[in-house]
Amino acid sequence: MKRHFITAALALLVLGSCNNKFLEKYPEDKLSDATFWTTEQDLKLYCNDIYPDYIVGFGYGFGDATVSPYGYTQAAVVYGDVITDNAAPSSYSLVAANEYIGYLTGASGSGGWNFDNIRTLNLFLENFRRAAIPTATQNIYGGEILFFKAWDYFKKVRLFGDVPWLTKTLNIDSPELYGPRTPRKEVMDSVMACIDTAIAWLPSKTEADYQTDRISKETALFLKMRIGLYEGTYRKYHKDLNLDGTSFLQACKDACEQLMGDGYSLYSTGKPKEDYFNLFAQYTYKGNPEIILSKEYDATLELGVAFSRYFAQNLRHRFGVTRNLMDAYLCTDGKPISSSSVFLGRDSIQEELQFRDPRLSQTVANFGTYDLATGVMGADNAPRPNIPGLSGNACPTGYRLAKWFLNDPEDWNRVTNGMQAAPIFRYAEVLLDYAEVSYELGQATQAVIDGTINKLRDRVGMPHLDISSIAADPVLDGNYAKYCGYTPAPLLREIRRERRVEMAFENTRWDDLMRWKAGRFLEIPVEGMKFVQSQFPTVKVNSDIYLSTDGFILPYYKTLPGGRTFDETKQYLFPIPIEDLVLNKALTQNPGWKSN
Questions:
Q1: Which terminus of the chain, N or C, has less C-beta within 10 A?
Q2: What family does this belong to (predicted)?
């Protein structure tokens, strides 16, 4: 993303502070370090310039910038799942297939190994106390910056493990530029200290002068919750780290409990067959009781994104939902498809979607019709699966994503000024995290499940999870045993299932697989829907599409005949760019990746 004017100019001033000629060339009536850090407006403008780097939503303009090193586009909140077992893009993901090599050719600072934003954040932290305003006001903006610093480093640790922890701005001759990585334990302790200070300094959303479009205490609590659950479970299941994650799990639970007492609730209008779908097709989330943080666009300022247009046309990644995700949804009797008496089978997509968790038909498009005159399309009224062999942009599995679809041709026609809002943090995740962390701490009682998982099920009219009577799922248990080397207890299995279903295509699945040490789930064969020739009379088998012996579409039959692979010796972390290893001899490459 482009560097913004205010932060870039100040950074250049600091870098050039020892160069009188540079300063002489900088106009005195423009921004300068000597005069900038004086008012609240200065601090607010600086923070405003940073927000777009972190609160990305669906992106900006055409929304087609690539997020490195993952390889998906800017609307990561939607498209992040294309590198997981939830989705299959027509051009298979190099990351998911263990073919990522960008670090071998990328320049220094590529592939996520970039500390430009950390420098920008540290510059603020070195100077914000200079403003002639009350300390409490300084703290509000300092809290925002600490929130972003914690978020930034949390992402870096998820990518690389050990990373340099930087507490000040550096110059070209600073020794820290050529130092080793800081151990993960020390970095994550520092991340938690940052977010705790942010929580202490930031205003609550309930305070009279709180501005609804800014980071709040509750937003920081949500991030603390997410950090705690990730790090705590990562340490538990990655025993080779030899790190205790209990304190992080407890931090997650404490943050959940605070958020659960802050007045949030699940969005519901009492329509179990519509509410989940409608939650993700909004122009604004102001007043929505479920949304803790969102990205909204402004038509009057022509600040929008072409998300709804290209999502409707299925252009971005041209992906489809996998049969593996389809099979995860329970039936309306609360049982998995392997043991439910109401499951009709997979002989057609119409049968497959009947008597299932209502979130399935609100996530995956049914075989419906499309009215070109009115543009009518939705979760239960979508065009037929546009599989390969038909004209237009093909959905490689036949399972087209309906979640996130905004049925408004007017917004599609705005192109880069599209106004669909993007939820970033929502309360449903708080309930899911609380259920999981309670289990991991040995505290998952029926009361906990009733206050979390069963509230989510109530919204869509699904039977409650009764911890004394959990249906067996030999298929899912078998996958855990085969691909992960362990089988979770039935209650944990169902908590994880609920998370996958509720959070599908909200960019949480990759992190879940990594922290559970379940990366080899990517090796489960990628299949699509059962092909019914009478529904697609012009599509040619073994030419347009290829089928399994059971008649399911195989999107990678030609392009990835061996299937996706996951190398557990290396793929839980990403590699550092080779050029950075050359520039800094103190850096070492992550295990399993080439060092030169």
A1: C
A2: Belongs to the SusD family.
Q: Distance (Å, rounded) from C-alpha 332 to C-alpha 340?
A: 9
> 535: which DSSP letter?
G
* CA gap 316, 91 in Å, rounded: 11
How far are the Cα atoms of 145, 202, 203, 205, 213 from residue 210, in angstroms, in the given order? 17, 9, 7, 6, 9
Given this model, what pLDDT does residue 27 score?
39
388, β-bridge pairs: 390
Number of helices followed by number of strands (H, E) in the chain: 24, 6
φ/ψ (deg, to 5) at 278: -65, -25
Q: Is the pTM of this model over 0.90?
A: yes
Tally Cβ neighbours within 10 Å of residue 343: 20
3-state secondary structure 252-307: HHHHHHHHHCCCCCCCCCCCCCCHHHHHCCCCCCCCCCCEEEEECCECCCCECECH
Q: Does 12 score more than 80 pLDDT? A: no
Rounded Cα distance, 56 and 294, in Å: 9
Report the alpha-carbon distance of residue 233 to residue 433 in Å, rounded.
Answer: 11
CA distances from 286 to 25, 65, 418 (A): 46, 27, 18
The whole-angstrom separation of Cα 467 and Cα 469 is 6
Average of per-residue pLDDT values in the chain: 91
CA pair distance 564, 85, nearest whole angstrom: 10
Query: DSSP states of 400-460 as a string?
Result: -B-TT----HHHHHTGGG----EEEEEHHHHHHHHHHHHHHTT---HHHHHTTHHHHHHHH
Judged on CB neighbours under 10 Å (0-12, 13-18, 19+), 388 is buried
3-state secondary structure of 541: strand
Structure tokens belonging to residue 255: 């943050």
Element (H, E) at 497: helix 490-502
Contacts of 406 (CB under 8 A, 6+ apart): 281, 308, 311, 312, 420
User: Coil, strand or helix: which one is 50?
Assistant: helix
What's the pLDDT tens digit per position in 364-386? 988 764 444 444 544 444 456 78
Hey, is 371 helix, strand or coil?
strand
How far apart are alpha carbons 317 and 301 in whole angstroms? 29
169-to-125, 431, 558, 568 alpha-carbon distances in Å: 10, 39, 50, 36
- Name the helix (H) or strand (E) containing 31: none
Assign 208 a pLDDT band (cuts: 50, 70, 90): low
**Rounded to the nearest 5 degrees, what angle is found at the Cα of 250, between the Cα atoms of 246 and 254?**
175
CB–CB of 263/23 below 8 Å?
Answer: no
Residue type at position 281: A
Place of tokens 């540290």: 122
Q: Are 349 and 367 within 8 A, CB to CB? A: yes
- Select from 203, 200, 182 the least CA-distant residue to 118: 182
